[in-house]
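WARN  no MSA supplied for this record, continuing single-sequence
INFO  ligand: pyridoxal-5'-phosphate
INFO  echoing inputs
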Amino acid sequence: MSTISKATQLLYASDQLPDIDISSESMPIFTTTAFTWNSISEAIEGYAKTKTGDGYSYIRTNNPNRTALATAITQLEGGEASLICASGMGAITSTLLTFLQSGDHIIYSNCCYGETLDVMKQLFTKFGVETTAVNIENMDEVTAALRPNTKIIYTEVVANPLMKVADVPALAKLIHKNDGLLIIDNTFTTPFAIQPLSLGADIVIHSLTKFLNGHSDALAGSVTAKKELIDQINPVSMFCGTPADPYSTWLVFRSLRTAFLRVPRQMQHAAILAKTLARDPRVQAVYHPSIESFSGHETAKKLFANDASMCGMVSFVVSEDFAQRDEFSRRLQLVHYAPTLGGVRTTYQQPVYSSHAHLSDEERRKAGITPGLIRVSVGIEPIEDILADFKQALDAFDR
Ligand SMILES: Cc1ncc(COP(=O)(O)O)c(C=O)c1O
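INFO  complex generated
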């Protein structure tokens, strides 16, 4: 066959693994902590193979399930190599610990996952790293923040929870002037919407816990980049113990086989939900890159193929009245509160109670996060069911 579609490639990714004969139709789980050898000379050869990624020794160093998933993620992101970590946070911290040292400077989006912000503010400042938070949609502000010692720009493509859109090619151009790295968290957008490496980013990170796993039953993360960068991150991940365990890795690999069916549908339904909410008089604002009046819309048009392939997340703002919000939440019959995202069932959460709970009301309002902000992760249900559920629940705001 001359060309095979990406969807089919993903189904057949990792059918063959180095040094292991797999003839089963599905991937087995290699829960073993070690692979054994029959002699010292075999052990020496085995360790050498482990070093080049052509064999396996100890579970933290290498594992066939991680190799299988890494191959699939590398293929999806169009990179050279990937690491599979125990969580998205494991992927983020291992990567930043590799490339930052005392005296370096990092610019990061002020609109990121709450604990990513904590890593910048609490962890790296403790080690003498200079940090600057910016509004990532404002390229003038990002440019002004650049210092001679700026090593990294870090952002999500569509950022949590206000959906700010990062101009990936422009950010890459800027940081490359400094010989620095652009690190992109592609969790919200997924490689089905955008492949940041093809737009100039150096490293792409995922919380695989979210859309790519999609079944809300595993914790994992990934880092994808050129092999020479992955080879630098790998020892740090080893030292910090961030490689993922085989079972979670296997779960994500299994789920990834249907990601081509799930994620595009979630993104398409999110765009429909965003447009429907924008027309509802009870809704004060809608944040989704497909909304024309939205601040990141023009950048989004450059980055994504169309409205239906941007992001499966939508945020919207309703009244701050607690009784009304609580009634709204009780009225919802399908959509339910869950402090996660990217699953096959539609969920929501309020950043004031979860990701941004540790900030003061003043700090949150400054960042645009009010008690009326609701963040929705759109699942794979027929969209009519989800629209109907929101429509009847929004009646709570009519009283
Ligand atoms: C955009 C984003 N990045 C990273 C993370 C951290 O991922 P994990 O919970 O897998 O450590 C999250 C968690 O929600 C997230 O939303």
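The CA atoms of residues 268 and 308 lie 4 Å apart.
INFO  checksum written, moving to next record
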